[in-house]
Amino acid sequence: MNRFTLAALAAFVGTGAATAGGLDRSGQSVLAIFDDPMTAGIGLSYVQPSLNGADVGGATGTYDAGRSYSSYSWSFANEVNDRFSYAVIGDQPFGADIFYNDNPLTSNLGGTTADLSSDAISFIGKYQFTDRVSVFGGLRAEQAGGRVALNGLAYANAIPAAGVARAINAANPNAGVTTAAVGGALQFANGNQNAQTQAAFNQVAAAVGGPANFAAAVATPFGQARGAFQATGGYSVELEQDWGVGLTLGAAYEIPEIALRLAVTYHSEVEHSTNTSEILGPVGGAAAIPGTLTFNSPQSVNIDFQTGVNEKTLVLASMRWTDWDDFDVIPQTLGADLANIDDSYRWTLGVARRFSPELVGLASLTYEKDGGGATISPLGPTDGQIGLSIGARYTKGNLNVSGGINYTKVGDAFAGVGGQPVASFTDGSAVGVGLRVAYKF
Questions:
Q1: Contact at 8 Å (CB) between 113 and 98?
Q2: Out of 12-16, 177-181, 248-252, which region has the weakest mean confidence (pLDDT)?
Q3: Together in a domain, 124 and 212
């Protein structure tokens, strides 16, 4: 039963990891620590998303924002003695591949892109107290970086408005003027007059010394900044690849006779301090502005469960929580958070079936509830998901080959800028394929 357990689990990981949504890619599994000694494995996956959206609020942009991407994983497991074993695991835990393919002068998000990547190496040791109880943990070295560009009418309005708000608050620290207030005041001045925009105008005008100063202190600098933003191609930032170190801790309870295992794994945050290069029309024209940026990749918890039903059938289940609340990416010149992501809870339930000594099949369902927010970040325009994976593993001697295909239906969402919806995404999906090869030396 135990060999069957390992075969099914490898197929489960190989097919499920190919379809992680949003910025969460690999699932950060460390279950290779339970592989047989002297086992090496490598996995490859390819995902083709379809994220179709259209502008709201008057603009006419249409998008297919998702770009295809591939990822890898690898592992090596061995033992020192009957009690202590170890594994070295490589993966790509987080990433984004987004491109809004429309004219930035006529669409809300045209020209906005995100190309973010990460690579991690985990060094995990496991101590077996009994045949049922073990603990494991170690260090994780993680590299992260990439490029983000913000463009289109929505950012051409929001970024200059934010700059005006900062200038007002710097001159009058008690003003408390927000980007939304500047935007509302400008709408009021341009004829969109209602109770909300009038209240915003009154607040902003009072902060700059009265309505007579509004044009010089607000409307003129906003118009100049907006024109410069569009003339220089919007805003972009390069984040140099930076290495950070985090902790991984876990424990497991097993009953080998029935192939039961419950494993709980905690991954800490990893702090990254990187050099940046920003281009922002309203501030620096076309010249790159050097700076520094500190951000933390999220902490997470994985719970993995499996148990044999009979000699040929295994049930598997997992839950992954990823804490995105503290994931703030705020470049110095922009002064605003590039990421606005809710915590995620991803649940998976699967069944593995042994058809012969060589062949194991697997089917699994994955579900992630939507965050319930009014808007989400344009850098990840999905909210929730449900997916089906089908895979198999074939064993020949010491060689094991597993693979599968996944179809995921992603949840509808409004991409938002400054808390306002600017594009609607519906009927999104992704197709992923994965392949893993393992060999026991």
A1: yes
A2: 12-16
A3: no
